[in-house]
């Protein structure tokens, strides 16, 4: 099978004079198809909605009650900012 695929451009270049087609046009066409398909998949992936927000459950742990760890208050501004950033990175608030 590989030899047949290699034989096609060999015949095309040596006997039909299609060197420009096999050496320039087909490689650029293959690259354009690759990039076009990649961009299509990326746009399709970016348009899909995120099904739900995955909150960080460590903020509600008993070990993280206000005052147990200095400077970490899950109900304070830092904790709310962290919760918002986790949900924002998932695509929902």
Q: What would you say this structure looks like, in words?
A:
With 93 residues, the chain is an all-alpha fold. It folds into two domains: 48 residues; 42 residues, no CATH class. It has three helices and no strands. It is rod-shaped and about 75 Å long. The model has no long low-confidence stretch (mean pLDDT 76).
Q: What distance lies between the first and last C-alpha atoms, to the nearest angstrom?
A: 54 Å
Please tell me the overall pLDDT.
76
How would the global form be characterised?
rod-shaped
State the secondary-structure class. Answer: mainly alpha
Number of domains: 2
Query: Helical segment tally?
Result: 3
Strand content: under 5%
Unreliable stretches: none
Descriptors:
single chain; 2 domains; 93 residues; 3 helices; 60% helix
Summarize the structure.
The chain is an all-alpha fold. Helix content is 60%, strand content 0%. It folds into 2 domains: 1-48; 52-93, no CATH class.
């Amino acid at each position: 099978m590989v030899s047949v695929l290699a034989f096609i451009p060999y015949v095309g270049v040596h006997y039909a004079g299609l060197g420009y087609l096999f050496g320039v046009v087909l490689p650029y066409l293959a690259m354009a198809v690759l990039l076009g398909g990649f961009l299509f998949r990326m746009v399709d992936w970016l348009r899909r909605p995120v099904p739900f927000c995955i909150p960080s459950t460590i903020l509600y742990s008993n070990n993280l009650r206000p005052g147990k760890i200095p400077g970490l208050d899950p109900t304070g501004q830092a904790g709310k900012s962290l919760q918002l950033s986790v949900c924002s990175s998932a695509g929902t608030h």
